[in-house]
Each structure stands twice: as structure tokens, then as C-alpha cells.
Amino acid sequence: MSIFKRKPMSVLIAEANESGEHTLKRTLGTWGLISLGIGAIIGAGLFSITGLAAADYAGPSIVISFIIAAIGCALAGLCYAEFASMIPVAGSAYTYSYATMGEFVAWIIGWDLVLEYAVGAATVSSSWSGYLDKFLQSVGVNMPVEFLMTPFDTMQLANGDVVTGIINLPAVIIVAVMSMVLIRGTQGSSFVNTIIVIMKVSIVLIFIAVGFQYIRPENHVPFIPENTGKFGEFGFSGIIRAAAVVFFAYIGFDAVSTAAQETKNPKKSMPLGILGSLLICTVLYILFAFVMTGVANYQAYGADPTDKLAPVAIAIANMGDMGPDGVVHAAYPWLNKSIVIAILLGYASVILVLLMGQSRVFYSMSKDGLVPKVFSAIHPKYQTPHKSNLFFLLFVSLFAAFVPGRVVGEMTSIGTLFAFILVCVGVLVMRKTMPDAPRGFRTPLVPLIPILGILVCFFMMAFLPLDTWLRLILWMIVGLDVYLFYSVRHSNLTKTDNGIAQNANKYVGLTGLAFSVVLIGLAIAHHQVSEVDPVTGQIKDAALYYFSLLFGIAHILIFGYKSLIQKK
């Protein structure tokens, strides 16, 4: 027996057909799934990333960047749709990988999804806190700044005093509220999410409708600004770099597939939910970007990169008629407050869906024995994985409360792109190994579509910064530690085989050795190109460099011992 043993399709189908009080309750229909997808996709990324990516990388051609990112998502989405209709079990890419490429690959992608969902939810909740403060200030309420920051954050007040944070309290509150909504039931969670989606999409449509009246054609000329001579700054390379950056705004449609086991008719509804939410959001993104770069020159959106609200505020300030003095007088200044509300709602629904996705992935991993059984415990009344929800309530809220929310969007992007690649590979494998298995939806033009999905997603990954790759490799090595020292010994498929430990030592050890060597190489390469902080004179990310070196060296010893020396 090997750690690459695949989970039998018969077992997966049996899990999908389970019923009773100790199983997930089927309550979602097609529109509920589409709403979940939109809830996760349309977040504050739409309002902040669009303008900044236009200013720094693509100009008006940010519209093309959104289309390229959407193509990558669509190619992966078609593969997701086939798997979701074929294997209607919670777990998303983790479950699909288990059925096609075996336990070890499934563990890697499951651990990767922790990065996407849990860490992403913590980061989003930290940002939600900042936007809540802006909204409260606009209505005359001022929260003590100590309760808006982590103990590692400081702020200089207008009088010159420097204040150190105590706890990011609003971030804890929003995570707790969304977790309680999830515990009460998927149907109720879906209803809350649908109300939020209706409200925030309405505001986006108002922005688009109002903005179209004030588009100035000269702002779209040139549509593709000439490259500055530096890779990634305008021109073709700028469009691709912007596509990799705005990809963060698309993250979330894959969360739909985690709800497969709570869907009434998954074979029909899952493909429609995945592809429908992606299509709706792509159209909104393209229109939003076209309006934003049309009402104001793209260069204006780089005026204050520290203020994430600045791009939308600038666009709204330019939605009006130009007076005799040559100054534009905003016709709808009230839109700014509405946009803040849309961002708060957008973040709340993103947190809700990310927390739901994470608990469902761990539910499947726990059922397989790869993580403790507590994560698959089902509430007898609400039929939700309540203990898993409570665990992530604690984990995510603590992370948001006491760790600075400076986790860059690219970190979540690279994890999701990696998941998309494995799903595309999985379809190719499944068509070879199980060509006659029943499918509610078939990915068209196989092998072309999966291969293009792999290439497009990897192409966008290649354009992400080196420090993003560093953090991904670090996270993967930690995952190998957990698998080697816990999961392989508790797995339902492999724990009964006496030779599995030696098999795991060999393959996991060799994989860990490779990751450790790559980590050290990336750390050195990143250190060579890192910028110097003008204030301190120190190289930026020096701590990441030294930690990566020590971590990599230590794991070369650990994995070397496991793979090359240990015989039992």
C-alpha cells in the first residue's frame, strides 16, 4: 500500500448519499450556490485593487487584465464543475485530488486550502475592522484606536502621541458573528449571504449606471499605455502582472464546491453555481473597471496607495459636470458612504463563505482520518460541523486580533492558483482512469481545456513576487511535517498497513528535501533583490530571509534522516 492510494469512488458516492442527524443537511439550490459564489467573489478587492492595479501596471487596459484572470478561472471552473457533478462531497479540490491522485497529493492541496480559507478570512476580518472605523467616523462615532489595532501596530495621533494597539476588537466580533450564523445552519447562512449579496450588488450596479454618464473618452487613450522600460509596468507585461494581482478579486468561486454535500441536486446545481457566479462577477468586474478608468485618468488612482478607499473616492469625485473653473463637481457625493457600506457587506460575506469553505474542507479531511475527529462532529439539531466552526472562530479571531493584517493578497492568490492547477490535472487523470464513470457535467474539449487551465494559472503564478513563493513553500513544509508525524498514522486508508510508515518516510522525506532546497534558493534570490528601507537602512524582509534559511537547513536534516537513514 502506498500514500498515493486513491480513495475509491464507491466510498465517495456512499458518503455523498449519507443521511441522518449526524450528516450535513441538504438545503441549497442553484441560486443559493450562485449567491455563495458571488458573496465570496465580490469583496473589497473590487473597490481597491482595480484602481491601484490600473495606476501601477495596466492603465485602462485593466479591463483586459480582468478578462485574462477570468479566462484562467473559467478554465479551472469547467474542471471544477465536472468534479462537483461527479463527486458531490464536501472538500472541494481536496476531495477531487484524493479520488484521482491519491492521499499524499490530496493532503498537500487540503493543507493549501487552509492557507486560502482560514488565513484569508483572518486577513479580511482585519481589514473589515478598518473600514468599520471609517464608517463610524463618518457618522460621528470614534472608537479608541487601541481597540482597532494589534499589539504589534502603532499609530501617531494628530497631537504627536504614539499609541500602541491592544486588540483588533471589531475583527474578532465579525468573525464571531459570521461563525455563529454558520453554526445555526447552512440554509440560514445562505439566506443571510443572499441578502448581503443583493445589497452590495445593487450598490455596484448604481456605481456603474451613474459612472457611465460621466465617462470621458480621452481617459481611455491610450488604452494600453506604453511600457516604461521596466517589466510589469504597462504594455503587455503590465497587463499580465495586473491580471495576476486582480486575480485576488476572483478568489471565492471555488468555495461553492465545498458545499456540494449540502446541495439538494448537486449534479445539476453545482456546475450552474460555479460557472454562474463566475460569469456574473466577471461582467460586473469588467464594467466596473471600464467605468472607473473612464471617469478619471488612471494615473490619478496612484495618488495615495496607502488609502484603499482612494480609487473609488477619486472615481466618485469625478462623476459630475466640469464647471467654468475646470474643476469637476461631484453630482453624487453620497455614493462614497454607500461604497463604504458595500465594502463592509462585501467583506462580511467573504468572511462567511471562507469560514464555511474551511470547515467543510476539514470536515472531509477529518472523515478520512487526516485531521482529528473533532472537525467532523455534526450538531444534532443544526446538522453543521459546529465544533469545527468554533475552532476556526477561535483560530481566525485570535489571528486577526493579535497579528497585524499585513498578509498580502498575493499570498491567497498563489494558494488558489495552485489548487486550480491540481484540479485541472485531476480531470486529465480521471478521464484516463475512470472514463465511463457517470458525470452530470463534462468539461468540453478535454485535454485542451485542462491543459490551458494549467498553463494560464501557472503563468499568473510566475508573475507573483518571490516573497509570495517563499511563504507558500514555508507553509507547504509545515504541512509535510503534520502529514508525516500525524496524518499518515491516522489515515483511514493507510494506518492499517505496517509498511506505510517507511513508504511515507521515503516519499514525504524526498518531497520535503526538495521543498527545503527550493526554499533556501528562493530565500537567497529574494534577499539579493530586496530593497533597502530608507529609514532604517536595513534590507527589507531580512527576518523572512534568515528564518527561511534556518527553517530550510533544519528540515534538510529532518527530511534527510526520514528519507535516507531511517529504515523502519
Automatic annotation (TrEMBL):
It is found in: Membrane. The chain crosses the membrane at residues 31-55, 61-83, 104-124, 162-183, 195-215, 235-253, 274-296, 339-357, 390-408, 414-431, 443-463, 469-486, 507-525, 545-565. Its main location: membrane. Pfam families: AA_permease_2. It is a multi-pass membrane protein. Keywords: Membrane, Transmembrane, Transmembrane helix, Transport. InterPro entries: AA/rel_permease1 (IPR002293). This is APA family basic amino acid/polyamine antiporter.
